[in-house]
Amino acid sequence: MRLTARALPLAAMLAAALGSAAVGQEPAAAPTPTPAAAPAPAEAAAPVPTPTPDLLGLALPTPIAPTVLRIRETPAIAVEKLSADNPYGKPADAPAAIPPKLTFADANLSAGFFVSVHVDPTGKALAVRRERDPIPSLAAESLKSIARWVFSPGRRNGQAVDTWGAYRVDLEVSIRSPKIVQMAFTPVPATAPLPKPFEWPTDAEWLDSRKMPPPADGTTPIDQVDTTPIPQKTPWSADSYKGPFTVKYWVRVDKNGRIDKAIPLDVSDPVLLPYFRRSMSAWVIKPAQSGGAPVDSWNELTLGGTVSYSDDIKQIVALKKAIGQ
């Protein structure tokens, strides 16, 4: 595994659109009648090409395989922050309504997992801290895995030192279509108190915000070592999850029946945020009505059920910056 010392932004959230076109053939002009001839043998059917990834990482569909979206960092729906007062509740004669069954698709996305590891001069991991975890449902397995990692120790002036290493673990996550067992969609009234949004900035924004003081436990600060502790063996058992999930959003449904803005309020695993933003962009919703005409409206959307996903480590980036204590 090749390690680098640069921080990459959260991996991405944009999915590519799918399309296929039927190939037709223009009929030929009617020929002059001629004596009947033996029919020509039928041409063999052309083989169906094996799907290959396109430049956006999206696998073209086959008759037997489900569509898998590739989610990039740019969201399909704008994410807003709540204002100081409540401008979201607007009266309407009839509220917006979602269909009885919402559509979802399998998807792949990237996620950054940030951890601090106390590495002693022998290269042993003494303690592990989850600083920013996109899949807290796998926290126990993540900690158990990293505690088994073996490092080359950090060095200063040629000597092995005791220090807290900082790492970004880049994960490739595959999310399967969730099974929805709980669904609620209600208009936001003007009297509703403003909830606290779920804060999940980009990896780059989060990393830039970390201004940590020197460690108080006597270890050598990571920004003062010549060589950071480098993982040599990285077993990983936190590679799959299947279980319950919940998400809650305030969403705006425009007069065309599309969700064009979303404010996350709660989520069981932050890795689901870009997935559900991308899913919402494909839904068609009955818009609210006022005076016999469709109007924009804000609504609270709550979904719950079961979901499964798997993840693999793509790379581990050693950071020359303290990210937590």
Describe, in plain words, how this protein is organized in 3D:
This protein has 325 residues and is mainly beta. It has one domain. Helices cover 8% and strands 35% of the residues. The protein contains three helices and 15 strands. It has helices spanning 139-147, 203-209, 272-280, and strands spanning 68-70, 78-79, 106-119, 125-132, 150-152, 154-156, 159-161, 163-175, 179-187, 230-233, 240-253, 259-267, 288-290, 293-295, 297-319. Strands 1, 2, 3, 4, 8, 9, 11, 12 and 15 form a nine-stranded mixed sheet that branches. It has a two-stranded antiparallel ribbon with strand order 5-10. It has a two-stranded antiparallel sheet with strand order 6-7. The longest helix has 9 residues, at 139-147. It is elongated, with a radius of gyration of 26 Å. The model is unreliable at 1-61 (pLDDT under 50).
Q: What is the number of helices?
A: 3
Q: Order of SSEs, N→C?
A: EEEEHEEEEEHEEEHEEE
What integer value in Å does the Rg equal?
Answer: 26 Å
In percent terms, what proportion of residues is strand? 35-45%
The oligomerization state is single chain
Query: What kind of sheet is the major sheet?
Result: 9 strands, mixed
The low-pLDDT segments are 1-61
The N- to C-terminal Cα distance equals: 27 Å
User: Shape, please?
Assistant: elongated
